[in-house]
């Protein structure tokens, strides 16, 4: 069960090798979390992540999960919930893609959309239903400021995150009053393996900073968390710029 401050004792991570997700998990283990399920495709990286978390004192299990196999989500995730209540689900899988390549290869672009949006919808609904059935829990969805307004430089990724963000907000409204809390996290540029080699955007942040913001959001029972917080104001301004002006910005 979650404590009075909203922190979970048990955690299911969808995207078990995500650097941001693992930073969140480490922070929660340091506070209260004792049981962790890392869901992802079997790999040495997943096994290594599980071992590192066990060294912190948590009971850690790995779960075979593929975002690109929505038909298998109910079976894979159902086995986790069959083991007992899950206090928090962290939906953290995703892919950045390669904008220049993906524009030339529609199949690659579709893979980005299927991973970031279709897979998230399927997994999110499975977990939401299970949390609602048990009567409590938090679903934390890792979105992105890229979904706030499509940019020329990454509109394929940004559009997939826009869809995810809208889905998560609507799901939160649908679950309001059921005991299930949905929190959308919107980081800006995060320094990870996925963004290595890319030009660093203003207000860049770290996985650890995102983890701290997630903890604070859980304690406050927030519905939306921006990382860093200043991005809320920045994106509000960019969202309302005339399209002709926005198009000329070096973003």
TrEMBL record:
InterPro entries: NAD(P)-bd_dom_sf (IPR036291), Sc_DH/Rdtase_CS (IPR020904), SDR_fam (IPR002347). Pfam families: adh_short. Keywords: Oxidoreductase. SUPFAM superfamilies: NAD(P)-binding Rossmann-fold domains. GO terms for molecular function: oxidoreductase activity. Its EC number is 1.1.1.333. Belongs to the short-chain dehydrogenases/reductases (SDR) family. This is Decaprenylphospho-beta-D-erythro-pentofuranosid-2-ulose 2-reductase.
């Amino acid at each position: 069960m979650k404590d009075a401050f909203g922190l979970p004792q048990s955690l299911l991570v969808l995207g078990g090798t995500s650097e941001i997700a693992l930073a969140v998990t480490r922070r929660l283990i340091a506070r209260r979390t004792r049981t962790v399920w890392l869901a992802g495709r079997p790999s040495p990286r997943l096994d290594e992540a599980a071992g590192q978390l066990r060294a912190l004192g948590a009971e850690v299990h790995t779960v075979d999960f593929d975002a690109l196999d929505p038909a298998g989500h109910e079976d894979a995730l159902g086995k986790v919930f069959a083991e007992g209540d899950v206090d928090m689900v962290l939906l953290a899988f995703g892919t950045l893609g390669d904008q220049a390549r993906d524009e030339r290869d529609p199949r690659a672009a579709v893979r980005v959309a299927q991973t970031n949006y279709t897979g998230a919808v399927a997994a999110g609904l499975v977990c939401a239903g299970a949390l609602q059935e048990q009567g409590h829990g938090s679903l934390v969805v890792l979105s992105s400021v890229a979904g706030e307004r499509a940019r020329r430089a990454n509109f394929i990724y940004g559009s997939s995150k826009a869809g995810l963000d809208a889905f998560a907000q609507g799901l939160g409204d649908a679950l309001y009053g059921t005991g299930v809390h949905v929190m959308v996290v919107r980081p800006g540029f995060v320094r990870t393996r996925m963004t290595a080699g890319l030009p660093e955007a203003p207000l860049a942040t770290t996985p650890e900073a995102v983890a701290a913001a997630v903890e604070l959001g859980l304690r406050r029972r927030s519905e939306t968390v921006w990382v860093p917080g200043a991005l809320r104001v920045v994106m509000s301004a960019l969202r309302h710029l005339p399209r002709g002006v926005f198009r000329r910005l070096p973003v």
